[in-house]
Amino acid sequence: MIDRIKELADRYYEDFVGIRHYLHKHPELSKQEFNTAIYITSLLSEWGIEYQEGIAGTGILGIIKGDDPGSRNIALRADMDALPILEKNDIPYKSTNNGIMHACGHDVHMTCLLGASRILQELRGELKGSIKLIFQPTEESYPGGAKPMIEAGVLENPATSGILGQHVFPELDVGKVGMRPGKYMASTDEIFLTIKGKGGHGAIPDKVIDPVLISAHIILALQQIVSRNASPTMPTVISFGKIHTEGKTNIIPDEVKVEGIMRTFDEGWRAEIKNRIRAISQSIAEGMGGTCEVFIDQGYPVLENNEALTLKTRKRSEAYLGKDNVVDLDLRMTAEDFAYFAHKVPGCFYRLGTRNESRDIISNLHTATFDVDEESIRTGTGLMAWLAYSELMNIE
What we know:
Blueprint: H1 2-11, H2 13-25, H3 34-46, E1 50-55, E2 59-65, E3 73-79, H4 106-122, E4 130-136, H5 146-151, E5 162-173, E6 177-179, E7 182-185, E8 187-196, E9 200-201, H6 211-229, E10 236-245, E11 251-252, E12 255-264, H7 267-287, E13 291-297, E14 303-305, H8 307-321, E15 326-328, H9 338-344, E16 347-355, H10 375-392
Parallel strand pairs: 3-4, 3-5, 5-16, 6-15
Antiparallel strand pairs: 1-2, 2-4, 6-16, 7-14, 8-12, 8-13, 9-11, 10-12
């Protein structure tokens, strides 16, 4: 069956590249993936694949039914949204939506899932069980699209026994994939602090309560949560990327707003970090005569790959690609709302290599020059089809 899937991936490769080019040229932001959804459903219809649309906004759930479709079900997921980035690539398929770009590879994710869907639809007569095709909106902005799709029942009727997610990885050469069983990606929450004091003239500091100075003390103190409270064996990040105030060189403002992130790999420690942020921020502000309002926006949970499913996925990937083309991944402090799926059913989120230094395809995710070696589409479509087939047919 591997040879047959590879033959189909090769046969339709140019079509799949064309799909990627269309999606890359027409990116849409989170919660706005309307034309993207229309395009996806048009292809599913063309290939005779059943689907439901309008799930959690613009989400789509397709299903491929083999023999006894309720007996076993595996889900495949791709995210749909793009980023608010002005593309700088000079390519024929450059984004035509000004200031919007598929800079995280979601165009490739959709293409690979569509490609795998076409392959699996042709093989449906040899399948036992069914395959769900989850096209998920709004991965790039809170609260994400995975949770509302789960709440809408995409993992039910029939019950899903496992889910696979594939994500491009420009740090890995094209033709390779990466796996990591267990904890893989961090939880993420956003921190919003509002420090209030009493403004006035910068040359008369004894008449003010300086929220700029208070915010500086708070930012420094919160870094000590990582250096002095986090276990050395527990990766933890607290970073602040935005400080805003209406003061000037000689005007101390009444208020300062500070925004940042916190990330870690343990849900209990995650809750403790939040408590410490509140206690430290408020006590410092009060001790210096001001106040601090703390709001921490709950983000995505820790992404943990199911050990058994990931080990099977690795073994099957080695059979398809060769052992040398399947590598181990390190922990990543980035986050993904695929984690919600993996908290509900056994999940495996793996990486697809897209790098090609000889062609200068080396830019990282979320940059204006990000692109992929499109041979990764040949790899990604065929591998995803093989993994779904293997899971349904219980191939070890």
